[in-house]
Design goal:
- There is one protein chain.
- The chain is an alpha+beta fold.
- The chain has a domain of 93 residues: Immunoglobulin-like.
- It has 2 helices and 7 strands, in the order H-E-E-E-E-E-E-E-H.
- Strands 1-2-7-6 form a 4-stranded antiparallel sheet, with no helix packed on it. A 3-stranded antiparallel sheet has the order 3-4-5, with no helix packed on it.
- Strand 1 and strand 2 form a beta hairpin.
- The chain is rod-shaped.
- About 5% of the residues have low confidence.
Length: 148
C-alpha cells in the first residue's frame, strides 16, 4: 500500500488563495493558521496559531452568527532580524457559525488561542419520541346504520 502526500498541494493552494485575496483586497496579507477540532457531538474548538501575541492584543467578538477574531500587535520589536518567519502583524479571521452555536470560553496558551464552541439546541427544537398506542377496535357498521 502506498501513501500519497498532499501537503505540498495544499500549501500551494493556501498560498494561491492568500495571493488572490491580497490582489483583490479581500483579506490582509497575514492571517494565522487554524484548526477546528470536534470534542463530541455538540462541542468544538477553534485553535489559532498566534505566537507572540499577548491577551490585550487579541479580540474576540460574535455578531449575527459570525465569530470574528482580531489581532493587533501593540509594540513592534525593533530587533535586527536576519530572517523573520513568525508573523506578527494585524489580522482578522472570521468564521460563520451554525445555528444555536454558543461561545463557552477562550484561552491563550503557548501561542495557541483556543475558542470553545457548543451547540445548544432549544428543547422545543430537539427531536422527541412519540409513543404509539394500539387502536381500539371499532364496531362493524351495518347497512342500516349507514343510511341513518
Amino acid at each position: 500500500m502506498s501513501i500519497v502526500r498532499f501537503d505540498p498541494f495544499f500549501r500551494t493552494v493556501r498560498d494561491f488563495d492568500r495571493m488572490t485575496g491580497e490582489l483583490l483586497g479581500g483579506r490582509s496579507a497575514y492571517a494565522p493558521e487554524y484548526d477546528i477540532v470536534e470534542h463530541g457531538e455538540d462541542r468544538f474548538s477553534v485553535a489559532l496559531a498566534v505566537p507572540g501575541y499577548d491577551l490585550d492584543e487579541l479580540d474576540i467578538t460574535v455578531k449575527d452568527r459570525e465569530l470574528q477574531i482580531k489581532g493587533e500587535p501593540k509594540v513592534e520589536n525593533r530587533a535586527n532580524y536576519v530572517r523573520r518567519g513568525i508573523g506578527r502583524a494585524a489580522f482578522q479571521r472570521t468564521f460563520t457559525l451554525g445555528e444555536h452555536i454558543d461561545i463557552t470560553g477562550a484561552s491563550l496558551d503557548k501561542g495557541i488561542l483556543t475558542v470553545e464552541l457548543e451547540r445548544q439546541v432549544p428543547e422545543a427544537m430537539k427531536p422527541r419520541s412519540i409513543q404509539i398506542s394500539a387502536a381500539q377496535a371499532r364496531p362493524a357498521v351495518t347497512a342500516d346504520q349507514k343510511v341513518a
